[in-house]
Amino acid sequence: MHFKDPGRIKMFFKDANKKNFLVICREVLVLWVTKKEVPLYYFKHLYKKDIRNYRDYLAPKEVRRIHACAKLHRKEYNSILHNKLSFALYCERSHIPSPALISYNFKSRFFFKDAVRKISDLGGMVAFYQDVFESIDAAAIFFRPLSLRGGRGCFKIDRENFSQQLRAEFENLLNGDYTHTEVIHQHCDIDRIYDKSINTLRILTFMEGDNVEIVSSIIRIGTGGSFVDNASSGGLFVGIHQETGTLMRTGYRHMRFGGGGVDRHPDTGFVFENFKVPFFKEACQAAMDAVRRIPDPLIGWDIALTPTGPTIIEGNSDAGFFMSDVAYGGLLKNAHMKRIISVVK
């Protein structure tokens, strides 16, 4: 929690579900002493009445140490994960199931098949995608910036009216670097929760030697008409029971979007608890197989569920611990996370 953000401060003071002042003071003091940092993170979630095991949650200093640990992250592997074009090409070469790469651009240079075309005006861009659509069997193309995260900068164009859509995105494309991939079609059961976005699983893997384990699994779900599912863009996240592949009871939002927990989707009314995630075992297996091809010890995999099975959207060396920490009620009681912490020490 950043105290320069008045919205979050106001949200904390207005929350009727917070512990009493003396309890908050005592717990903040305990964390300050045991974690050896000012525990501002306490005011993001741990101040709530139902959080009794507040010491089981990761502190920012612990997260930073995990991300900085050379035993858990190799820059050679991270370079594949961080750049979406590198990742798409590597997945294609390594037969990792992922959205098919159609074309890409480095600002005004557009690449399709074996050709590169320099584009300087809207007419040239429309002609380029006319050729692309005539060469592929796809109703739409999805665009993702090579390096931005959290769903920022993503958009799609449709075969039926791509020329009008390109008019709106012309400057963005010409001044940016994008991958252009096939549009994923979501499993109908996931559509029942929310069908405006592709709602991806975030599966966190830990590789030690040749052994790969799943640390945690959550699903991220869009809200409010948004076509992205990222919690950083206002979406929900819900934990998944690893043994059964069913959703936990409560979905959460980041505090800047209201915080708190809900037991059903605010737009569709879909109840989370006990919903069985389709292809969950296959998604976990896909993540573990991918780790053996990109053997970084700690990766958060974003996986979409299609009608025919899982497809990997991206891998993240920054695993987004906050979501799993909240969804699982404190990751420090997780046996795999205990092992990760021991590697860092």
Strand order of the largest sheet: 11-10-9-8-7-12-13
Structural class designation: alpha+beta
The coarse overall form would be: globular
Query: Averaging pLDDT over every residue, what do you get?
Result: 91
Rg, Cα atoms, Å: 21 Å
| Helical proportion, percent range | 25-40%
Commentary on this structure:
By secondary structure, this protein is an alpha+beta fold. 34% of the residues lie in helices and 23% in strands. It contains eleven helices and 13 strands. It has helices spanning 6-14, 21-35, 60-68, 75-82, 84-94, 122-135, 162-174, 188-193, 280-293, 321-327, 335-344; strands at residues 101-106, 109-112, 115-118, 140-145, 155-158, 177-182, 201-208, 211-221, 236-240, 247-252, 261-262, 298-306, 309-316. A seven-stranded antiparallel β-sheet has the order 11-10-9-8-7-12-13, with helices on both faces. A six-stranded antiparallel β-sheet has the order 3-2-1-6-4-5, with helices on both faces. Helix 4 (75-82) packs across helix 5 (84-94) and helix 6 (122-135) crosses helix 7 (162-174). It is globular and about 65 Å long. 34% of the residues are buried. The mean pLDDT is 91.
